[in-house]
Amino acid sequence: MIGKIKQSQGKLAAPAGIGTAGSKVVRAGFIPLLDASVLIAAAEFGFAKKEGLTLDLVKDVSWANVRDRLAFRQFDIAHMLSPMPVASMLGLGSNPSPTITPFSLGRGGNAITLSTRLFDRMRETTGISEQASALENARALCKVLDVMKAHGQAMPVFGVTYPFSSHNYEFRYWLAAGGIDPDRDVKLVVVPPPLTSDALAAGAIDGFCVGAPWNMVACERGVGRIVAAKQDIWPSAPEKVIAMRPEWAESQPETVSRLIVALDAAARWCDDPGNHDALAEALADPRLIAAPVDIIRHVLAGEFSLDARGNRRVIPGYFNFHHDFANYPKPGHALWIYSQMIRWGQTALSEEGVRLATSAYRPDLYRAALGIGPEELDIGIEGDSQTDRFMDDHIFDPADIFSYVRNFTVRSDLRQNTDSEEI
C-alpha cells in the first residue's frame, strides 16, 4: 500500500485553480441532508464555476435511487453513503455496479434518536440521568428490552437509511456496545432520511439513526430524544462521499481533477463558521434540504435540542467538512466498513474481499488533483488515540480483520438477505 505522504498539514494551502476553459456540465444526485453541504456549496457559491464546471444538482428520495441512477448513467456523480462504493465493488446488494470515491464530504452529522416514550421508559426503568452518555443510554435500553421480553411485548422497530450505510453500522455498534443483539433483540427497517421524523411521530418506528437535520427536527417536534451522536461511537467514522463510475473517472481525468479542486475549496469554505449563516440560508431552500433555517444553523454549530423539554448539548466539530484531511478517501476506512459487513453477516472475509474493498477508495485521484495528503499511512491502526476512540474501546487493526471481528461478543455468524427492507 501507499506509504507516508510527506506534506505538512500545518502548511496546507488552498490549491490553485486548474483552469476554466471549456465549461463542463456534471449531473450530481444528492439526498437532502446537511452532509451534502460541500457538494451544494460548490454549486451554489461559485467554486465549481471557477474550475470550469457546472454542477447540475438533482435531489432524490432514497439511496437505492441514487445508486441506480448513477449505475444507469442518469448521474455523473452522486452524494453517497461511505459504505456504498465498498458494497458495490464487493458485488453486494441489488444491482451492484462498480463505484469508486476520490473524495469524502467530511465527518460527522449522524445521531441516534429514540421516541420520547421509549426514552422515558428507559429513565423509569434504570434511573439514568438526562445527561447520560451514549454507552449508558445503550445499556439502559438493554435493560428495558429485558423487561419487554419478560412480559412478552413486541420488540421495538428502528429505522436506518440503507443496509450498506454508516447509519446501519453505527446503530448496530451502539446497540451491541450496550449488550443488545441487533438481529435478535430489535427489528431494523429501512426508512428514507426525510421520512424518519414522520415515521417516529406516527409510531411506525421507535427510533432511528440518520444524518442531520432530521434528528433535530424530530426533537423539535417533541417526538424524539437524541441518545448518541456519531462522535460518541467513533469520531473518525467515514460518512458521505462523492461517488462515480470507474469508467467515467478514467475517461475524463481532467474533469475529475477540476471537480476535486472545486469540492476542496467548497469544503474549506463550509468549515468556516463565518460562512454558516449563508450556508444555512442556501440549504434551507425547498429545492435543496427544505428544513427550517434556524434548525440548520444550530446543527452546523453542533448545538442540539436533545428533546422538547429543553435539554441541550453542544458537540464541538459536529460537522467537519475539511479540517484534518476530512476529505481524504482513506482505504483503511474502507476496510473498517468491510469489517462491519463481515461482523453483521453481509459478506465473508477473503483476500479478494480486502482487495475489492480498498479499491473503492481512490486516494490516488485525490492526490493527483490536489498534490497533498495526510502523513499517516493509508491503512493503519484506528481507534488507538485519546481523541479518536471507539465507544467500547476496541481497536481496529486492518492487518487482522478476523481477530477484530471475533473479539466482539455481539456479532452475526450468519449471512443475511441484504436486499430486503428488513435488515
From TrEMBL:
GO terms for molecular function: ATP binding. CDD domains: PBP2_NrtA_CpmA_like. Pfam families: NMT1_2. This is ABC transporter substrate-binding protein. PANTHER family: ALIPHATIC SULFONATES-BINDING PROTEIN-RELATED (PTHR30024), BLL4572 PROTEIN (PTHR30024:SF43). Signal peptide: none annotated. It is found in: Endomembrane system. It comes from Rhizobium tropici. GO terms for cellular component: endomembrane system. Coiled coil: none annotated. Its main location: membrane. Keywords: ATP-binding, Cell inner membrane, Cell membrane, Membrane, Nucleotide-binding, Transport.
